[in-house]
Write a structure and sequence with these properties.
The chain has about 260 residues and is of the alpha+beta class. Helix content is about 45%, strand content about 20%. One of its GO terms (molecular function) is kinase activity.
Length: about 260
């Protein structure tokens, strides 16, 4: 009762395996973090049901959920760092709602893929086949001749701070007609980001030749694709490129975002 405890709830892709690996590395490298030879004990819940039972000891739904969910497919795990367990049971009135968060599968989301000029015209059939193999559903497609202002909005802040890089990226994006696809599937945003790989095509080639930017790109500028990097950006991109709507059934996520 004399020492406080730290209770954390984590969410992430493959959260159980990832957290287990982190904890294993943490204990193996204990000499790097302390000179006393002692570390806090760590208890990790494994299945969602156990995670739920432990989480409701400390958190209500209001504590756990803040605003609209914008996650990809999240597997949620629970980590308790403690010396002595001193906390009594918390408010349990939101058990059913909180439990649903732990056991609900992946939500169907949409994301945006822009195939840069000069890439889609020669490789569209192969790209569409790969999208189908990855279980993406095509719910929107259009040709776009990007104006400089629109191209600028697709670039990350670090590029905008470098005049030379900014000019190179804008020149590439506005050099011809781009093809914009809106794609739907569970965990769509994260899945597409993983398929594309790093912005730098050469780095992508070094990491994995199967990454799409490794296959279709040659540099950071001419890397073949723009993809929404987060769910928030995906929503903005959908509203930007497909204001007329999408050819898919309205799912809960799209209704919540008024897409």
């Amino acid at each position: 009762m004399s020492n406080p405890v730290l209770v954390c709830v984590f969410q992430g892709i493959n959260a159980y395996d990832t957290l287990a690996a982190v904890l294993e590395g943490f204990t193996q490298g204990r000499e790097k973090f302390t000179t006393s030879g002692s570390l806090p004990q760590a208890v990790m819940a494994l299945p969602p049901e156990v995670t739920f039972r432990r989480a409701i000891l400390f958190f209500t739904e209001a504590d756990f959920v803040t605003g609209k969910t914008c996650c990809h497919y999240l597997i949620i795990t629970f980590l308790l760092l403690f010396s002595l367990l001193w906390e009594e049971w918390r408010d349990l009135c939101a058990r059913e709602q909180l439990f649903n968060i732990f056991v609900t599968g992946a939500r169907v989301l949409c994301t945006v893929l822009l195939i840069k000029p000069g890439v889609w015209s020669q490789n569209l059939a192969r790209i569409l086949r790969n999208l189908d193999l990855e279980k993406f559903t095509l719910v929107g497609m259009k040709h776009v001749d990007l104006e400089p202002a629109l191209a600028l909005g697709l670039l990350p802040s670090q590029v905008k701070q470098d005049p030379a890089a900014l000019e190179a990226h804008c020149t590439c994006l506005t050099s011809g007609t781009a093809l914009v696809l809106c794609l739907q599937r569970p965990n769509a945003v994260k899945k597409l980001v993983d398929l594309l790989g790093p912005e730098d095509a050469k780095l992508a080639q070094a990491l994995d030749p199967c990454l799409w930017r490794a296959q279709y790109g040659t540099s950071t500028v001419h890397n073949g694709f723009y993809g929404s990097k987060s769910y928030q950006m995906a929503v903005q991109d959908m509203k930007l490129f497909f204001p007329e709507g999408l050819c898919c059934a309205k799912c809960q996520t799209l209704e919540e975002e008024e897409v």
